[in-house]
Amino acid sequence: MTKDYSILIGGAAGQGSRKAGLTIAELFSQFGYKIFIYDDYQSLIRGGHSFSQIRASKSKVLSHRKKIDFLLALDETTIKKHQADLDKKGMIIYNSDELSLKKKNVVGVAMETIVKKAGGTPIMGNTALVAAFVKIIGIDWETLEKLLKKELKKFQELNLKIAKEAFSSTKNLVKIEKLDQKPLPLLTGNEAVALGAVKAGLIFYIAYPMTPATGILHYLAKHKKDFNVKVAQLENEVGVVNAALGAAYAGARTMVGTSGGGFALMTEGLSLAAQSETPLVVIESQRMSPGTGVATYNGQGDLLFVLAAGHGDILRFVIAPGDADEACFWAGKILNLSWKYQTPSILLIDKEVSESTFSFDTGILDEVKCEKSLLWDKKGKYLRYKKTRNGVSPLAFPGEKNVIVKANSYEHDEFGITVEDEKKVEEMQNKRLKKFEEMRKEADKLPAVNVYGKKSAKKAIIAWGSTKGPAKEAAEKIGIKMIQPVIVEPFPEKQMKNALKGVKKIALVETNGLGQMEKVLNCYGIKVDKKVLKYNARPFLPGEIEKKLRKF
Amino acid sequence: MELNTYAKNTWCPGCGNFGILIALKQAISSLVGRGIAKEKIVMVSGIGCSSKIIDYLNLNSFSSLHGRPIISAEGIKLGNPGLEVIVFAGDGGTYNEGISHLIHAAKRNSDITVLIHDNRSFALTTSQFTATSPKGFKGKSTPEGSIEEPLNPLKLMLASNATFIARGYSSKTEHLRDLIIEGVQHKGFSFIDILQPCVSFFNTYQLYNEKVYEEKNENLTSEKEALKKAGEWNYGKDNSKIPIGIFYEIQRPVYEKELLGNLIPAKRTKKVDFKKVLEELK
Lengths: 552, 282
Fold this sequence. Notes:
heterodimer, A: alpha/beta, Pyruvate-ferredoxin Oxidoreductase, domain 3, Rossmann fold, 3 domains, B: alpha/beta, eight-stranded mixed sheet, globular
């Protein structure tokens, strides 16, 4: 029986369930477990219901699961909402000051009493609950104390007092085994994106706050000095994208981040990037859409939008990583690609990748490099849009001596002067079309498609983005193949068809209502036999996919 | 100093833009003479007749989208604060499409110079009203006359905390030349609304020649005085005289300096210590 624990900690917003969940995850991580945390919170600041569902497993996990082994309830609502998912042998740890449970396998913790006695504030109840849980699962006090000392900056002494009291107030009931595996740091997908971009030479991050991308803005703003980057929050997304283009024109590697609605405002900028051949990297972290949608919840409904956004003939890079490791690598890669081809590009993630917490393989950072752009050789007169063999014109930046850099949103000649002449217009379009060909060739050479599960299976799941996690797990359980396109544009036709060799039946799994990836696959002659769609603003669980495809 | 490109000028004969072009060229010659390297100058334009100006001059340029040159210019300045960034935009792009960017650039005190070719209409799209058109303006979308009162951009700039507010007239080229020089040299956000007649759709030469007068303001740091001067004429059909000159000039911290410190992002050489970053992660 593989070691795989499912822990849910919940409460009202403001009770600190997220911080508590992270602390528990850190402890399991120190014990050698691989972690995944699903964070569920509503669009409010206080009240309501929020919870973290932690998966701690021997092997790498990219999804939480339905059945709960330990239900930690900071309030009664948590019990009411989640007790139906409790495993047969599952345990509830709850606030015995608020209520009394008469069932098997429950442990009450007098959270409020302990906090009041120590002279703390109500939110510190989460420390009491965590400490009690730690005792219950057989982790020693010293380990907990060390972690709390590291994690808690404010009111450390008070919290330690509460923790010690709660720890002593209960007894060990279960023994969590320590695994002989190196502990990995825990990062959210947003943090991983930030790291990857910084490694690839990011200098500037510009954004307007929008869930679930805001974490990138906060993380980079907090670590400005460590990462030697600058961060600016501007008046609206239209401003953000246009400022980013200005900064890139001046020679600074810049990135912007937003969600679907914010990206909608940026699309004119994407078109400007294509016409003026200015590098632009947009992190689009999807929420459930359309419109304002379900702001703090899950969806993959922006795929077709992102592929078609921006008026005109535009080929852009669209890359959809499925977890934190991939988010880190591809954030760095996409920044390099954008500067190599002087083109708009979108890293398409979603709430599940952005805001879930993953065990992070730091080795990934070694694979991310800051690749040099094609620079002018300083010979002759500088022409911003010089026609070249492969359509990519060498870069120079304003301020350099003897250089005039003219970037243009209008169609232009090689120097950058506006043109309407049919010959000149066609010439410049041809230059860009040639560049697109180079981009296609480049995408072909990259690891654009991942294959998991039983490689020789005749049935395959196609899944992308965060659905990779649960789909991979389900495929491995059922014994079929799982194919994940990571680069969606330019579409890796060769690699996809290679992965599909021998496959007779295809199931597409994604979290949107129209089966958007099906349209993309159809363009390349890949026919889907079954669609498994979920669109209730929640991510897939492996068990759900398993159930739907067991008889596929 | 040869500033012309090979691009053919397509402004209507008699266009007010020619006056602005003359003033600009003289200003640039003077500024280069005073020590600003030619290659450090970046022109940023929007869309419209006015914006064609960047095709005509052999200087770095970024032709932005309608309404966006101001925020593009801020981005350029943030990318390399050593550049001298000047925006050329119309009233339509700036007071209609891109008004939020105008206000925030002023609010932030971004160190750019904004020149508005204010012909008080959308001319290139063959005449529709804009925010500075007078009530009753007969354009193609308001053939019976616009029912909207105009906006006073000088008052808007005062309310937005702009640190340099001026108005010029395209026919008074020497006066305008000096305004541009002062504006570029001012450390902070410089705003110059330039009254520009449009011979094809809104010929205001006679009106401006009669009403415009040069005002040498004594107390440039008084908000009260500036508001009074700004309110003398409200871009409507009133019969008042129209003062031009610098109305307001103060100093306050510059956005790019505050945000970047001494860093020039485009020239950043210091590498990130990833070993340290990874240590902290663990």
